[in-house]
UniProtKB/TrEMBL annotation:
Keywords of this entry: Nucleus, Transcription, Transcription regulation
Coiled-coil annotated spans: none
Protein name: Xylanolytic transcriptional activator regulatory domain-containing protein
CDD domains listed in its UniProt record: fungal_TF_MHR (cd12148)
Stretches with biased composition (Basic and acidic residues): 1-11
GO molecular function: DNA binding; zinc ion binding
Start-end of Polar residues biased regions: 16-45
InterPro entries per UniProt: Fungal_SecMet_Regulators, XnlR_reg_dom
Any single biological process term in GO: DNA-templated transcription
This protein's record includes keyword Transferase: no
Domain Xylanolytic transcriptional activator regulatory: 124-284
Stored PANTHER family: PROLINE UTILIZATION TRANS-ACTIVATOR (PTHR47424:SF6), REGULATORY PROTEIN GAL4 (PTHR47424)
Region (Disordered): 1-46
Length: 635
């Protein structure tokens, strides 16, 4: 967490307000970052282009499922008006100019160092994508005029670091790709064969991780998945996934570095698999057992990487649970219970944020930390993904006169409890995105920022259709403003997703409320509003999951080992057990989701304390740890 407090440095290196008035469309064959083309327009060689089309990416997949429910209700054919709507950047294919190192026109070394520093700050705060000191040493020892004589892998790594530095600066986007697209494509075309790559495994792994990171920002999610998968294969081939004393044929580098690099690969591979709905090439339980010998203090030095890994592991478990019910078509009690199990695990994981620096250092949201905000967003993203099937389930339920009775009689209690958890996570996400936007800390081409903004907004749109007015409309406005800023910076996918959000909003009147209609609703509380207190937003992660088990505790198997990453202490975390009985949930008919109020960062006490098989108690008893007079009454 060395860079966790460098918010001032981040503000200097990140772009200020976007200065581009719209997504630029330049008529050129393949742009440089300064707007020049690699091939002149009168070139005799025709340059074809590859359209980036991502219909299976997580953002579009969720929206497609929502449309399939809404459009038949409106009499429209599903997706009838969306031909070509998902096409974003126009990527130049391979050609001899891209692979010609004489056409590189690299910037001076001082500027390359500046770009590398920017890439290091944005990438290595929460991951270990490349060794920044080693990169600087090799850069100083390599004349840029003689790159042809240098290592081929180093050549690609240099180009990709330059591309990522330009990307995070956020200037120079075109219709052909984000800033740095020229250097990225140069690097892809200069990538050597596997025979050459295998001779420099650590540098090759770093290079592939860098390529995967840029490809994701350029909306090339399949390519990002392939790059991270190749990095995983190389890491396994040289023993990075095994006991450290079994790793051979590696350059003499610190063991902590090797382990951090391996776990970074695991994080990236799992997230990219989830993004495109691919089978995860990473068995969480098998690897936990295989690497149990690595459990010792300091095996992973950065808590940010630890937390990132645990969230990624949890995301894999969630996606695996979804795959088992993919062809069922209806939401069974078993599938709902699996979602509950994973959310309870997420609730325990949220408590680990107490070990990281605060999201905001004061009451003011102006003190928001960009690196910590990213960790919170990753957590909320995982919660939203876990609850997505429940939102679709509630949308698909038939609407009739008995829907209110069903919602209060118990048949929909688990679904509503999960929905309010989704609403809380979505509200927290957009609260954070609003704070980042106000401080010019948006990463214009960050897929993480883009995805959680769209998914959170879409989730709130659905939740407000199912239960009207549970949140203020300001959250949707925040999402639109964030997407608009990203669009103005040249992020074409953000332009498309903002338009998609508008289209879904137009279809929502076709969905009748399932619960909360005027003639049925109980006393309505004030809709959830944006949080303005930084300390409240700090602690919101502890209260976002509102699933309250009210029945007997699940069976505890003393032989069951909790699934955690090697070297990561989860404190008092209780073991998870996959074979849990269905959890009984308490559903309050007058519920409205709410974030913790400004009361020292803690939520106000509930009006009623519900205890299973007992009558409600008017006032819960407070065990005061300062005034200990109550101990006199203990027998």
């Amino acid at each position: 967490m060395d860079h966790m407090n460098q918010s001032d440095q981040a503000r200097e290196q990140l772009p200020q307000r976007p200065t581009v008035s719209g997504t630029p469309v330049q008529k050129q064959s393949c742009p440089e970052s300064n707007g020049q083309s690699l091939l002149p327009m009168n070139s005799s060689k025709e340059v074809s282009r590859v359209k980036v089309h991502n219909e299976h990416v997580s953002t579009w997949a969720f929206s497609d499922e929502v449309r399939q429910v809404l459009e038949p209700r409106s009499g429209e054919q599903p997706n009838s008006s969306r031909s070509g709507a998902k096409v974003s950047y126009m990527i130049c294919p391979q050609n001899e100019t891209l692979s010609d190192t004489s056409a590189l026109n690299l910037p001076p070394k001082d500027y390359i160092i500046h770009l590398a520093q920017i890439a290091d700050f944005h990438l290595n705060t929460n991951y270990l994508v490349f060794d920044y000191p080693a990169f600087l040493d090799q850069l100083k020892n390599t004349p840029l005029q003689s790159l042809k004589q240098a290592s081929e892998v180093w050549h690609v790594k240099l180009l990709t670091v330059i591309a990522l530095g330009r990307l995070f600066l956020g200037r120079g986007a075109t219709s052909f790709g984000p800033p740095g697209i020229r250097e990225f494509l140069q690097g892809v075309n200069a990538l050597p064969s596997n025979v050459v790559i295998s001779q420099e495994p650590l540098m090759a792994i770093e290079t592939l991780c860098l390529l995967a990171t840029y490809a994701e920002a350029a909306d090339m999610h399949n390519a990002a998945y392939l790059f991270s998968g190749q990095a995983s294969r190389i890491a396994r081939s040289c023993g990075l996934d095994k006991r450290r004393d079994l790793s051979k044929d590696l350059e003499p580098t610190g063991q902590d570095y090797k382990q951090n690099l391996w776990w970074t690969i695991c994080v990236l591979d799992q997230k990219r698999s989830a993004t495109i709905g691919a089978t995860v090439d990473y068995q969480v339980q098998v690897n936990d057992s295989l690497l149990s010998s690595h459990r010792h203090p300091g095996s992973i030095s950065s808590f940010a990487l630890q937390f990132n890994l645990l969230v990624a592991n949890q995301l894999t478990r969630i996606m695996t649970a979804f795959s088992k019910h993919a062809n069922v078509g209806t939401m069974s009690a078993a599938s709902i219970n699996e979602i509950i199990v994973e959310l309870v695990a997420m609730q325990r994981l949220g408590k680990e944020t107490g070990n990281m620096p605060p999201l905001c250092y004061e009451r003011s949201l102006q003190t928001v930390s960009r690196p910590v905000a990213t960790l919170h967003l990753l957590y909320y993203h995982c919660v939203v993904i876990a609850t997505k099937p429940i939102l679709l389930h509630l949308m698909k339920l038939p609407r009739n006169e008995n829907d209110h009775e069903a919602s209060t009689s118990g048949s929909l209690e688990p679904a509503f409890a999960i929905m309010r958890t989704c609403v809380n996570a979505a509200c927290c996400s957009l609260n954070i995105m609003s704070a980042l936007r106000e401080q010019n800390l948006l990463e214009i081409f960050s897929f993480c920022d883009l995805e959680i903004t769209f998914l959170a907004a879409l989730s709130l749109v659905i939740a407000n259709a199912v239960t009207p007015n549970i949140t203020e409309s300001s959250f949707i406005k925040v999402a639109k403003d964030v997407l608009q800023d990203m669009s103005h910076g040249g992020n074409i996918p953000a332009t498309l997703l903002r338009s998609e959000l508008d289209d879904v909003l137009k279809l929502m009147p076709n969905l009748s409320p399932l619960y909360g209609r005027a003639r049925h609703s109980a006393t309505v509380r004030r809709p959830t509003a944006m949080v303005e207190d930084g300390r409240v937003l700090n602690n919101a992660i502890l209260h976002v999951i509102e699933i309250q088990p009210a029945g007997k505790q699940s069976h505890y198997d003393p032989s069951f080992r909790p699934e955690t990453a090697p070297g990561i202490s989860m404190g008092n975390q209780q073991p998870r057990h996959e074979a849990r009985e269905a959890t009984t949930l308490i559903h309050n008919p007058s519920w409205r989701p709410s974030l913790p109020q400004a009361n020292n960062g803690m939520p106000p006490p509930p009006n009623n304390l519900y205890i299973h098989n007992f009558d409600p108690v008017e006032h819960g008893f407070t065990f005061d740890m300062e005034g200990l007079q109550w101990l006199d009454n203990v027998q």
